[in-house]
């Protein structure tokens, strides 16, 4: 694996030879934290985004974990937080992010459902507000997240937060642009994506100890370049991570093209 830092940028940025190698690097880091926390008699707390662009991360984590009872990583008590769910869908529903995670990762990994925290887009009004508050409370109690991974999208969105988003937002409803809905549909097997989703907020992202952001493909080169600002600007959500003590942007060659 060839990993090269692109220097003198406001966000620490690494160029990998391929998207798969970038995604695999996060798997190694997450696995290392699982091992480190267990050595110190604790449990790692990890926050996951979903979609085909990060499937190599989950494939590599499964490969590295092995079987716990035979000396593999002790993953049964890892605290796992899903970062988003589509409105009208919840855990186990067809077309939900949680169903995608079950298929791609959880059903093949050893983490216990007892320690999984998923958002539920089926709730409304006061019930949804209470659910989001409980999610934040659980993350504060069991975290902060040792590693949180999210994607940068074609509109410049960070996770599901579009340009113009509230940098201080916590978990709640967000509105998705048409372009983002198309992109998310591609990442989740061609499902129909609704106009809104429940998502961890930008401030929630920043509460993690380590944030890892993916951007892959030629179409992302301009988006990445535009987000490299010295100060936070809600119109360029990537820049809202400037100043975080441990954030890394992980790129394939195409996405890094305008930075080299």
From TrEMBL:
Single GO MF descriptor: glucosamine-6-phosphate deaminase activity
Listed EC numbers: 3.5.99.6
InterPro entries per UniProt: Glc/Gal-6P_isomerase (IPR006148), GlcN6P_deaminase-like (IPR052960), NagB/RpiA_transferase-like (IPR037171)
Broadest EC class assigned to this enzyme: hydrolase
Entry-linked SUPFAM superfamilies: NagB/RpiA/CoA transferase-like
Domain Glucosamine/galactosamine-6-phosphate isomerase: 18-241
Keywords: Hydrolase
PANTHER family: GLUCOSAMINE-6-PHOSPHATE DEAMINASE-LIKE PROTEIN BT_0258-RELATED, GLUCOSAMINE-6-PHOSPHATE ISOMERASE
Protein name: Glucosamine-6-phosphate deaminase 1
């Amino acid at each position: 694996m060839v990993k090269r830092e692109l220097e003198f940028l406001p966000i620490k940025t690494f160029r990998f030879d391929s998207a798969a190698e970038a995604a695999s690097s996060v798997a190694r880091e997450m696995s290392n934290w699982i091992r480190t926390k267990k050595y110190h008699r604790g449990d790692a707390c990890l926050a996951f985004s979903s979609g085909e662009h990060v499937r190599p991360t989950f494939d590599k984590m499964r490969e590295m974990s092995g079987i716990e009872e035979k000396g593999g990583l002790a993953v049964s008590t890892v605290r796992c937080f899903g970062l988003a769910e589509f409105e009208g869908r919840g855990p186990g529903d067809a077309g939900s992010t949680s169903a995608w995670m079950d298929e791609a990762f959880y059903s093949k990994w050893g983490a216990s459902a007892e320690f999984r925290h998923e958002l539920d887009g089926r709730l409304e009004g006061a019930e949804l507000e209470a659910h989001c508050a409980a999610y934040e409370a659980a993350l504060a109690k069991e975290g902060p997240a040792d590693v949180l991974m999210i994607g940068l999208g074609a509109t410049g969105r960070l996770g599901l937060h579009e340009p113009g988003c509230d940098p201080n937002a916590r978990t709640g409803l967000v509105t998705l642009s048409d372009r983002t809905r198309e992109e998310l549909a591609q990442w989740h097997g061609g499902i129909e994506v609704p106009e809104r989703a429940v998502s961890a907020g930008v401030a929630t992202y920043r509460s993690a100890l380590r944030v890892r952001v993916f951007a892959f493909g030629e179409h992302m080169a301009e988006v990445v370049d535009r987000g490299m600002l010295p100060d936070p600007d809600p119109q360029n959500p990537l820049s809202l991570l400037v100043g975080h003590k441990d954030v890394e942007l992980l790129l394939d060659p195409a996405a890094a093209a305008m930075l080299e």
